[in-house]
Amino acid sequence: MTSQASDVTEAPEGAEPATRHTAEPEAARGPRRRPWKVVVPLLVLAVLAYLPYVPAELPGLLPGRVNGPGSMQLLATCLVIAGIALSYDVLFGRTGLLSFGHALFVASGSYLLTISLSTWALPLPVAIALALLASTVLSLVVGAVALRVGGIAFAMVTLAFAQAASIIVMRNPGGVTGGEEGKVLDRDAVPALLVGVANAPYRYWLALGFVVLAWVVVTLLIGSRAGRAMAAVRENESRAAVLGLGTYRVKLLAIVVASVLGALGGIVHALVLGGSNPHLTTSEFTLSLLVMVVLGGAGSRWGALLGGFLYAYADARLVEVSGAAWLEPLPEVVRQVLSQPLFILGVLFIVVVYFAPSGLTGLGGRLIRKAGSS
Amino acid sequence: MSDLLLLLVTGLGLGALYFLAASGLSLIYGLMGVLNFAHGVFMTAGAYAGWLTMGDLPQSLPVGARLAVGVVVAIAVGAVIGLVVEVVLIRPLYRHHIQQVLVTVGLSLAGVAAAQGIWGADPRPVETPTWMSGTTVVLGARLPNDRFVYIAVALLLLAGLLALLRYTRLGLVIRAGVENRTMVEALGIDVQRTFTIVFAIGGAAAGLAGVLYSQYAGAVSPGQGGSLLIYAFIVVVIGGMGSLTGTAVAAVVVGLVQQLANYYAASGVGDLSVVLLLALVLLLRPSSLKGATA
Questions:
Q1: B159 Cβ partners below 8 Å, 6+ apart?
Q2: How many whole angstroms separate alpha carbon A69 and alpha carbon A201?
Q3: Share of chain A above pLDDT 70, in %
Q4: Cβ–Cβ below 8 Å for A149 and B282
Q5: Residues A204-211: what's their mean pLDDT?
Q6: What is the mean pLDDT of residues B193-205?
Q7: A248: containing domain
Q8: Which residues of chain B does A168 touch, with a Cβ-Cβ cutoff of 8 Å?
Q9: Cβ contact (<8 Å) for B105 and A349?
């Protein structure tokens, strides 16, 4: 890997070269010298938490009022996806592991929750604990096997495992997973606050809570010894191994942490959307996580969150572009192609890989610094 | 007995399709280290090219003749797409493997979405020659004819690629490039051009695989290439990442295992046992996957 190649995996938080991350832990230089590193997230959190009290309308951006059920549901979905993207970034951006199987763990969280609620009639806390525990074990097993190979082969092996899970879910063994229809959440087993159209703000806060939790876990992780070991593995695995780091264990830890966060995301996803969707199991979902993280900026918490949020938002809202008036003069074929959100996102993704390897946040940071220096 | 024979032939036919899909992938990976996620889009493009050609040709022609023209067009389309993708998207990211993978991922998303936008998400039925949808009775087993076609085409492709690798100057450069690319460059050979040719060959093989897979499935759909691609990946990994004969053996094993397990266990077990096979290979022989000779 040349220096340009590691641009994508480099952490764009602050302007430091990534190698100094290993020498100087982020936690040690963070809060004291840079109070805005704490203030800005808290400010963003306060604004987001207050949104359900905002009755304003943002025509074109959100369906109806900001605190209306439609907008709340959309924003909640975007937040959950953002949190899941953050969990994927632990693998890709922090440890440099190109996994194509992260969907497996998100889906296992989601499906184990809905199945244990409706099929096994377990109470909600037990169901959540079971889903998390089982996903942890699953991530240990899959990670242990897949880490026997590195690089591109690792990507393929994780893809194969996720594909196996997808096949199982689609085949609908014993009518348990609901096949292509998905599995509906048992509404009676969930607190009344989380059910129904009128309670959309509570689901929104639940999603926000998940994002905050994921943020805190990832922040603690990257400040810890293990987090620095992950950065070392990402930058140069052989060097990390020569320095005596157990790279296998470090990578396995990254997989387990990311998977548990992902499974939690799957659980919240099921609660917010009222069921498990087989789309969560597909390799396209993992690919979209990869796209989100790279779009936003790999190895950066803001990047992953922003990428996930924008991707989910664009996926839901870009469909309206096809009906836009300015597209009328274009030929039919072009309009048909542009009506596909994934086409626009895919092309945008390629453009970002070429021209903004550190993602949208990296690009933003670069522009800000440029403006500041001139 | 006749059951077993039927399963063996259908399994071999499936393996042949896997080999068609995996050969280009394996060749590209072996030489360039590029995991081509857009290979599924290449296959889908081939399938749609074949389907459109068959629809555009005068309907008075027999289906078989139209299919033959469709196959030729699909191969050409696949080769051109492979060529363009290599020159425009892959070449500027030379030696940046992760970015190359990312670009092909973006391409696969955009390509499937474009096909979906133009032709719709629903599968479109494909005409099949009457002979290929019929059966031949061998030793009491009614064997579907199309499998013989797949097996024959796969054998031809394998023989052709092996001959190319072994007896031509291009093959020599490819084999040397797989072994030690830096050394080949140091000797003053234009590896860049070889990359482009290999990508075009891989694209052509993908186009062929796509059009034959649409015959196998009886329809074309945007997601078709992607679903075949997953098995192609598994075949490439089991076959040793970049070895052509290894890929062929792995394709046959995967096809047979899938078919036999689907019949003797339950439907769907075959697909799972393929993944299990992959896990076993990884656990028992992880060293065999670190790369190979072409």
A1: none
A2: 7
A3: 87
A4: yes
A5: 93
A6: 90
A7: 26-373
A8: 268, 272
A9: yes
A311: in domain: yes
Residue A252, in any domain of the structure: yes
Tell me the β-bridge partners of B219: B125
Give me B30's structure tokens: 């072996």
Domain contains A18: no
Residue A7 maps to a domain: no
Each domain of chain B, given as residue ranges in start order, spans 2-225
The confidence band for B165, taking pLDDT boundaries of 50, 70 and 90, is: confident
The whole-angstrom distance between B114's CA and the closest CA on chain A is: 5
Q: Domains in chain A: how many in total? A: 1
Residue A369 pLDDT > 80: no
Read off the CATH number of the domain in which A203 is found: 1.10.3470
| CB-CB under 8 Å, A8 with B230 | no
In angstroms, the CA A130 to CA A123 distance is: 11
The answer to whether A160 contacts chain B (CB < 8 Å) is yes
Nearest CA distance, A308 vs chain B (angstrom): 16
Instruction: State the Cα–Cα distance between residues A162 and A183, nearest whole angstrom.
Output: 18
Are A164 and B271 a contacting pair at CB < 8 A?
Answer: yes
Which of B106, B230, B276 lies nearest to residue A163, judging by beta carbons?
B230
Which residue of chain A comes nearest to B30, CA vs CA? A152
Q: Do B101 and A98 touch (CB under 8 A)?
A: yes
Contact between chains at B109 and A163 (C-beta distance less than 8 A): no
Please answer yes or no on whether B118 and A149 come within 8 Å at the CB atom.
no
Q: For A226-264, how does the pLDDT look when each residue is reduced to its tens digit (9 = 90+)? A: 889 898 888 888 888 888 888 899 999 999 999 999 999
Distance from CA of B109 to the nearest CA of A (A): 5
Residue of B nearest to A341 (CA): B113
The answer to whether residue A314 neighbours chain B at the CB level (below 8 Å) is no
Report whether A299 contacts A9 (CB < 8 A).
Answer: yes
ipTM of the complex: 0.80
- The whole-angstrom distance between B99's CA and the closest CA on chain A is 7
Enumerate the H helices of chain A as residue ranges: 19-23, 26-33, 36-50, 69-89, 102-118, 124-146, 151-171, 200-223, 225-235, 237-242, 247-273, 283-296, 301-317, 332-338, 341-355, 359-373
Q: Do B106 and A346 touch (CB under 8 A)?
A: yes
Q: Is B221 left (phi over 0), alpha (psi -120 to 50) or beta?
A: beta
User: Which pLDDT belongs to residue A241?
Assistant: 85
In the predicted model, is pLDDT for residue B201 greater than 90? yes
The CA-based angle B77-B78-B80, given to 5 degrees, is 65
Q: What is the pLDDT of residue A327?
A: 66
Handedness of CA A169, A172, A177, A181 (dihedral sign): positive
What three-state secondary structure class fits B125? Answer: strand
